[in-house]
Every structure is written in structure tokens, then in C-alpha cells.
């Protein structure tokens, strides 16, 4: 290894010691929570066998829902391979619980790109919220990029049925919402408006902290199984957790009214879903250690990072501002070249729907598009920000980042 990179590595590991200790504590608490849930539900080997056909009486599937509910602090949950993605799970949750004439208030600023299409804030996709007579108001963030609770409270009307908090910044330039902040936001919205319910887009947030939105008053939450809670093992799917009546309403949208939670074959899904969930606290802890490491190493190389290397995390996303196209492209290509799969591929910037300029995407993953695995992407335009996320093991994050820096120096 180049001696400068070796020195940055040693300094980084020294400087992040306290943070890594804290991450280990959260990891153990979450591991205990997961273990306790499996024990409380008496998960046995027969729960790992899936069902076919209609999937009636699938005990493994139903127990998995109860395990998720325990872990996420909710009454019920539905965890299924039929959810195509996080966007699909969130969409089923919202469509299931709103009716024509209802209003949705996005309290955390602009929604994640795919959700803008769902609610009808971007284009006019067939079947979006607008076409069903449901409206969405987006409340701008305050000038520190945080939820403006007073403005949210003033925006809510008698027509507002649900308020959405998106925990992770996604690809937006704002801080993600910590559980502590979210607790205050939920309390203050509910204190002022007894009639509204709170939905949390929990994507990228699971197991990052000791508590989940369900523990602090969220009524419904959803996420993707090819992100945190799948532990890098689960091949597809999503989950919705929350108050039982709301989960039932959502399940009628996933399946059909009258079928709801009672059917849905699981095939080979359950073994991976239980296995992945069990190791998810460790995989998430490793990915978060990798995010701090990435930030620190790139700060030492002179780049700007958000969050900074020493900021406490509530999700996996690490943004790095490269300031020029050359460095950004070189970094992303190196991440690809030091991935376990498709390492010989070289990503090049190209157009992507929903983006103005060219986008570069580096991901050499076992599961297609799994962002719990190490990946780097972003629009190749000023300020040349790459979003780096995931990493199945901290060791892989360290090796890949060091090698990426090495090729940038070369
Ligand atoms: C990933 C993500 C989603 C859903 O994305 P999918 O690719 O559909 O799984 C929604 N919101 C946020 C904040 C996300 O990070």
C-alpha cells in the first residue's frame, strides 16, 4: 500500500475508535432484539419452508410478519417477496390507507425520486395518486435542511389524513432524520393534530439505531428487503409494519380486498428472509463503519463529505463531493473494479430517466440493485457528488476505498 494511504488508514481507525465502539453497542442491542423475536415466536426449521399456489396456512410467512412487528415496535407486519421494491411497499401502504379526497403531507421535503412519480409530483404516470383524487403537499425544509415542524403543523388541514417522514435523505442534500428528532416531530404533529397518522419511509434506516420508528409513535412504516433488513441475503421483497388495522388495509392493496394477509406463496423466500434478518444488525453495523471510513479517508484526500466522518448516523448513505468529473468517475470505476461481481466492467456516465445530465452507477453486487452491497453512484454534474452506500463487510469497504484512492493518486 502507498505510504500516504497507509497513514490515512491508521489515523482514520484511530480517530473513529469511539464511534466504532458505539456502533458495536447498537449492533449488539439490535442482535439481541432480533434473537428475542425469533425466540418469542418459537421459530423452528419448518418455518423456513415456503408455500406454493395460494399460499394458504403458510405459518413461516405469518410468523415472519410477527417477528418483524416485534423488532420494529409495531402491532403487525407483512413481509413478502411479492413486493417488487421499497417503492412498491410504500405505495401499497399509502394507497391502502388513503381514499379519494384525502390529502398527504410530505413533511420531510421533496420525496425520494420514485415516490414523486407515485404521488404525481413528477410526470403523470398511469395510476398515480393524483388520478385517484388524492393530493400531496410537500412542506419545504428549514434552512438547516431539517423538518420545519411549525410549518408542517400549519400546512395540515382537516383533509390531511397521513403525514410522511422520510428517514433517510436518499439522494437529497439534507441531513437524515435521527430517531430522536423524529420522536419530537411525531409528538408535536400529533399533539396539534389528533386526526392525522404518521407514515415513515424507513428505507436505509433499519438497525442503524437502537430504536425504530414504530417505537416512537409512527403508525406505519415500510422498506425494502434488498436494503438493510435483508442483510444482503434476501433476494427480493419488502415489508410494511404498523398498527394492525393499517397493515390490513395495505395488504388489501398488495393482494386484493378479501384476500389481504391470508394468502401469498413464499416459495424459497423464507429461508433467506429469516437468515438475512438475523445477520442484518451486523451487516448494517459494518456498512455504517464503512461509511464513516469512506468519509474520513476522502476527507483526508481533500474532498468534502456529507455527513462528515464523525457525524452520528441514522442511515447508510455517504455523500462525497468530488468537485470535478474526473475524480468522481475514477472513484466510481474503482469501486466497480474492486467488487466481487462484474469487477471487469467499467461503468461510464450515461443518461437516466428522472435526471437532467449523465449519471454514473457502480455496483458489482450479488443481488441486482442491492444497495446494502457496496455501490457508488451519482449525477456527473457540479458539485460532482457520488453517493456511496452499503458494503456486506467492513473489511471489503476498507479494501475497496483504499484501492480506489490508490488508483485516483495513480
Ligand atoms: C431506496 C429508497 C426507497 C425505495 O427505493 P426502491 O429502489 O424502490 O427500493 C424509498 N425511499 C428511500 C429514502 C430510499 O432510500
From TrEMBL:
It comes from the Bacteria. Signal peptide: none annotated. Pfam families: Met_gamma_lyase. PANTHER family: CYS OR MET METABOLISM PYRIDOXAL-PHOSPHATE-DEPENDENT ENZYME. This is Cystathionine beta-lyase family protein involved in aluminum resistance. It comes from Geomicrobium sediminis.
